[in-house]
Amino acid sequence: MAPQKSKFGHLPLSTSGPVDCALTGAALLNTPAFNKGSGFPEEERVKFNLTGLLPQAVQTLEQQAERAYEQYASRPDNLAKNTFLTSLKDQNEVLYYKLLEDHLQEVFSVVYTPTEGDAIQRYSKIFRRPEGCYLNINHQERVEPDLAQWGNAEDVDYIVVTDGEEILGIGDQGVGGVLISVAKLVLTTLCAGLHPSRCLPVVLDCGTDNEELLSDELYLGLQHKRVRGQKYDEFVDTFVKAARKLYPKAYIHFEDFGLKNARRFLDLYRPKMPCFNDDVQGTGCVTLAAIMAGLDISGLHLKDIRLVVFGAGSAGVGIADAVRGAIATEGGISHEEAAKQIWLIDRPGLLTTDTEVSDAQKIFVKDASSWSDKSTDLQSVVETVRPNVLIGTSTVPGAFTESVVKAMHKNASRPIILPLSNPTRLHEAKPEDLLKWTDGQALVATGSPFDPVKGPWGENGKEVSIEVAECNNSVVFPGIGLGAVLSRASRVTDKMLVAAVHGVASMSPTKKRDQKAPLLPDVLEVKKVSVRVARNVIQAAVQEGVATERDIPEEDDELDEWIREQMWEPKYRPLRYVEPRTATRAAKGELKKAGTVVRDDVSK
């Protein structure tokens, strides 16, 4: 029976129907966006001149994925598995994403944190082939032509750009930061169905202050100290203007810029274009969703929050901003008044009027005179402030000590404690300790995955298992990006972000009234969550007047169908041959920069 045609099959990003392809023979097999390997059906083998290039058996995608998983599982460690997956992606895009989708929970930490951090640190040593667009601060005249290699105006939907200065808690990684751009785009496809061939990873090579890289003769980036100041600002602006000129509908996602630059560039460009900074906004949104779920369990409201953030970098301040905005909106008060409920602690201690702070931190500083007779370390602040929410973004392992946690629990019956630093070894506390120190009452979410914690916290001391939510940005940033791309939003507004938070919070397992459930939906539910987030974002964009796409459905169910029809999935679609002279760049496989595929021993 022929599949039923979608009512939205006419849309440019529709995933129904055949795919135009102008390639044949070996060129087709060497193009990962089109390659099906042993999955090519007989008629396509004949039509595309593949009959002598493949073994005779025609296999299903499921069979290929089973074989690929066996090969993946045979690798000796996670870094080797990460390298294997990279090689698979370079050969067969659909099979790569099918393998990830089938084993999502297992592979997530391999394709992203913490293993991706290891791959980034070793980038120049494990390098096989280029991935993404590499822009050179010393040749800014080449920025636009280098970006132009990736397609025409209609060909790019989503750009992730980094300068590699502050990567995943491991600091300055220079040109290796390109892998964080690649990884983020993998997540946008895996979690929200952004079309992989329409995504562009970019690294801005400005040099590096990492002495280990500078002294490494194998390092692939510019081997000089980071360029800063006016030349750096001009480089970023040159990139932004070129990207906007070449790909006027593209959404730009800033990733892992240094503390002093992340907020500055977001504030500069956000009013002018659809852009997003995951370290600031994504972390803030997902953390706020976890807090809202925790407040629901504890019977509190946003107006009741007393929040201490330990680690006042871009992530910590981003979280504080998101919470401040939500408190102000719910309570009908000013942002300045809402900020009084939030305390930021950084290396000097509590940020006060006597502390040197950034513009982004300034609204949260406390009057130094009121702290003149008090210590400003974490323990003292917790004892003085009596917070009901404690968040860690400090990368200081073990900072949430037993005495700190017990001091908090003394004044908060269900303390919300979120140690979010990545990777796992940098967490401020382990969930098992937080639950042990609070007799199972702490409401915990972490920045990396942890196993459920068992303890005698049920009725009459019965042993129960408490699931620990992973406060992972992937439940929110892909859906925000999907909503912005599909609505062709001219900007990403505060109301769009708040709508995204409500989308995530509405799907919290705690809504089932199970107080032992995790605060956030599981990664296995992430595509459903992304649809809900995208729906909320699109509706908010329409209400705000920033959606430029026409004929967006108004009803929830129809809008969800409209969204799902445009979400790419790892399925083999029929190939339709088109003549090269009339073919689009997509049909020629030219939407990804050309390069020689380097083979691992991956079986097609």
Q: Overview of this structure, please?
A:
The chain is α/β, with parallel strands linked by helices. It folds into 3 domains: 99 residues, Hemocyanin, N-terminal domain, CATH 1.20.1370; 135 residues, 3-Layer(aba) Sandwich (Rossmann fold); 296 residues, NAD(P)-binding Rossmann-like Domain (Rossmann fold, 3-Layer(aba) Sandwich). Helices cover 39% and strands 10% of the residues. The strands form 4 sheets. A 7-stranded mixed sheet has the order 9-8-7-10-11-12-15, with helices on both faces. A 5-stranded parallel sheet has the order 2-4-3-5-6, with helices on both faces. A two-stranded parallel ribbon has the order 1-16. Helix 19 links the parallel strand 11 and strand 12. It is globular and about 80 Å long. It starts with 18 loop residues before the first strand and ends in a 27-residue tail after the last strand. The C terminus is likely disordered. Pfam families: malic, Malic_M. Homodimer. Keywords: Lyase, Manganese, Metal-binding, NAD, Oxidoreductase. InterPro entries: Aminoacid_DH-like_N_sf, Malic_enzyme_CS, Malic_N_dom, Malic_N_dom_sf, Malic_NAD-bd, Malic_OxRdtase, NAD(P)-bd_dom_sf. It comes from Emericellopsis atlantica.
Question: What is the number of strand segments?
Answer: 16
CATH superfamily (homologous) name of the largest domain? NAD(P)-binding Rossmann-like Domain
| Spatial order of the strands forming the largest sheet | 9-8-7-10-11-12-15
- Helices and strands: which structural class? alpha/beta
Q: Rg from C-alpha positions?
A: 24 Å
Main pleated sheet: 7 strands, mixed
Q: How many domain units? A: 3
| Rough outline | globular
How much beta, percentage-wise?
5-15%
Mind telling me which CATH architecture of the largest domain this is? 3-Layer(aba) Sandwich
**Separate helix tally:** 23
Weakly predicted, low-confidence segments: 593-604
Q: What is the distance, rounded to the nearest whole angstrom, between the alpha carbons of the first and last residues? A: 29 Å
At the first level of CATH, what is the class of the largest domain?
Alpha Beta
Q: What is the CATH topology descriptor of the largest domain?
A: Rossmann fold
Helical amount among residues, as a percent range?
25-40%
Overall average residue pLDDT? 93
